[in-house]
Amino acid sequence: MQKNDKFYTFLLSHKSKNKIYIRKFQVSRSLLHFGIVGIFLFIGIGALSLGVISILRDPAFAGTISTAVQTRVKAAPVQQSEMIEYQRPAESSEIAVNSGGPVDNLDNGEDSQIDSEVMAIRKSADPETLPTMWAHLGKINNEFGFRRNPFGGRAYEFHPGLDIDGERGEAVISPATGTVVKAAYTGGYGNMVEIDHGNGLTSRYGHLSKIDVEVGDAVTRGKLLGAIGSTGRSTGPHLHFELRLNDKPINPRHFLPQEPADLDSIKK
């Protein structure tokens, strides 16, 4: 074999009868080097693959991976809806007492900006327009957020307001000044009143047995809106109180004071 800067030259000889034949051929140095490197890479990758397969087949390794995955799953943060999914109570066919409201699974609760938006409204808005008093005092049968379907079964749904217990005919008042923008039967709300308080805030009062205001009425704090009932999607007399910011439901407790501890004595 001879070589120069660009080629390797190979001389091959073979003997035929009384003659000797010599054949010469040249191979590019870069091509030959590439081929040699490729052979070694092929051998190395093959050996590595065999090693990985043998490790994966090792029972001890499989057990280690399983433990690591379980630890990661337990440590991972869980969204609110997932928490409820895994914390479901024992299955029951009983219908919840004095509960209900619209099916609103398109909404999934509040985002991280709600607190700052509420704070800004509290600072800039007229206090009389803020719903900081209870439209009706009673036991809270359902809070804002995901809950079990009040009509039974295992289904869960998003509840966009508070279900406040009450007797049919008891008064429902406006918790702030505003303008009535809706006063009519409205699907799952039943007889419903909606008030616009400005600054993107609106409030809704559902399941009323009667409505005492009309669209366009200007209401003040304490104004009678209607009476407790069980119209619409409801399992019994109660008030569905809902607060919305820019037409998205938010927890009314952002504005409401803590309810009295002894509601029975206050009603008496």
Report on this structure.
This protein is of the alpha+beta class. The protein has two domains: 2-70, no CATH class; 95-267, Distorted Sandwich (Glucose Permease (Domain IIA)), CATH 2.70.70. Helices cover 25% and strands 31% of the residues. The chain has five helices and 16 strands. It has helices at 29-56, 59-75, 80-86, 114-124, 263-267; strands spanning 2-3, 7-16, 19-28, 140-142, 145-148, 156-159, 162-165, 171-173, 178-185, 191-198, 201-208, 210-211, 218-219, 224-227, 238-245, 248-250. The strands form four sheets. Strands 4, 7, 9, 10, 11, 13, 15 and 16 form an eight-stranded antiparallel beta sheet that branches. The chain has a three-stranded antiparallel beta sheet with strand order 1-2-3. A hairpin with a 2-residue loop joins strand 2 (7-16) and strand 3. It starts with a strand and ends with a helix.
Q: Summarize the amount of helix as a percent range.
A: 25-40%
| Rounded average pLDDT | 75
CATH class of the largest domain: Mainly Beta
Q: Please state the structural category.
A: alpha+beta
State the separation between the terminal residues, measured CA to CA: 114 Å
Instruction: Please name the fourth-level CATH homologous superfamily of the largest domain.
Output: Glucose Permease (Domain IIA)
Number of helices: 5
At the third CATH level, what is the topology name of the largest domain? Answer: Glucose Permease (Domain IIA)
- Strand residue percentage: 25-35%
Second rung of CATH, namely the architecture of the largest domain: Distorted Sandwich
CA-atom Rg in angstroms: 38 Å
Order of helices and strands: EEEHHHHEEEEEEEEEEEEEH
Count of discrete domains? 2
Q: What about the largest sheet?
A: 8 strands, antiparallel
* Backbone shape: globular
How many strand elements? 16
Low-confidence stretches: 61-93
